[in-house]
# Entry
Amino acid sequence: MSHDTPILAVRGATMRFGGFTALSNVTADFPVGELTAIIGPNGAGKSTLFNILSGAFPPTEGEVLFNGTNVAGKRQHHFARMGISKSFQITNVFPELSVQENVRVAVQAMTRRFDLWTPRSRYREMIDRAVELLRVVGLENHRGRLASELAHGEQRSLEIAMAMACEPKVLLLDEPTAGMSPEETVGVIDVILTLAKSCTIILVEHKMKLVMDISDQILVLHHGEFLAKGAPHEIRANDEVKRVYLGEGRK
Ligand SMILES: Nc1ncnc2c1ncn2[C@@H]1O[C@H](COP(=O)(O)OP(=O)(O)OP(=O)(O)O)[C@@H](O)[C@H]1O
Ligand SMILES: [Mg+2]
# Structure
């Protein structure tokens, strides 16, 4: 594997739902350590590509390459084990558990052969790890609260901490700031930028300014097809991208 091998890539990825083609022959690289945003108007195929990249379903045609190896068709848990972790548009924390317990359960799920006979020291280690992750996402001081008591933005941060418990190499985020106030959005962006130092991030996001501010590269989809890819300044200057966004209203 050369240094140039992207950690994740799609080659000719096509997704059909019945007779409808949601994604058509898309080829794209996601380089190691970079933050890539996937953008495009409603229905462009962003979530479909997200689901293919996270292993939620295989493409109808084409390849999904992880470190250069085709993994299309492997089950979701294989993707997780390879180090591809995701956080959803829909919040999926356990509302009746404390903030710390939510993350501790996620850490435990990652720890092999944990059972009733595991020494208490291992349990302590898992809690320490949970607290460390909560510190990263800025929830350390909320760890004793019930997850259900958190504000929406804090729940998203908790969810990101849970995704991080899997020690992902690639973290996929589908609209992590959806439904958030501007203040909450700023908080979650901080979290994302912190995570970006230690892992590759693929982000689906509607908010253009946010995308332009934090991405290393941007992939633009339109009607299920690849439209453009490049650094923020290149995408901003791209006439086709401008036409798509001006033509369909700014997101
Ligand atoms: N399971 C499915 N069955 C049928 N059609 C689907 C399915 N999932 C997505 N589609 C269609 O495929 C197209 C792309 O959908 P997708 O959810 O990937 O778009 P998106 O870019 O994420 O849009 P949004 O910005 O609204 O989230 C849409 O026209 C959608 O209606
Ligand atoms: Mg979507």
